[in-house]
Design brief:
With about 120 residues, the protein is an all-alpha fold. It is built from three helices and no strands.
Length: about 120
């Protein structure tokens, strides 16, 4: 009677590493959390931009309807409430727009410029 011998197989190919399931869940959860933060930043900056549009609209409305009635200083006739609202609204709109683009494109330079101002 012959006894079967066990043969030894040596594998010389690439080694495949399989990550455990909890690691995949954590990675997926982190990705989903970052996506949520990205879109929350976009929505916040969109609201900021819309607020700037509202301020600009009120400033233009004041400039058209009130004229020079709301002048803040007699020595500076161009310093009126309408002009101040127009300048502020334009500035807020620009910051909100740059923030929206920075959040969607994930551009560090744009987000840094929004956070500095």
């Amino acid at each position: 009677m012959s006894v079967p011998t066990a043969s030894l197989i040596l594998w010389d190919g690439p080694v495949l590493l399989v990550q455990p399931q909890p690691e995949l869940k954590r990675c997926s959860m982190a990705h989903n959390c970052l996506q949520c933060i990205k879109y929350l930043m976009f929505v916040f900056n969109l609201l900021f931009w819309l607020g700037g549009c509202g301020i600009l609209g009120v400033g233009i409305w004041l400039a058209v309807t009130q004229g020079n009635f709301a002048t803040l200083s007699s020595s500076f006739p161009s310093l009126s409430a309408a002009n101040l609202l127009i300048i502020t609204g334009t500035f807020v709109m620009i910051i909100g727009f740059v923030g929206c683009i920075g959040a969607i494109k994930e551009n560090k330079c744009l987000l840094l410029s929004v956070s500095i101002t």
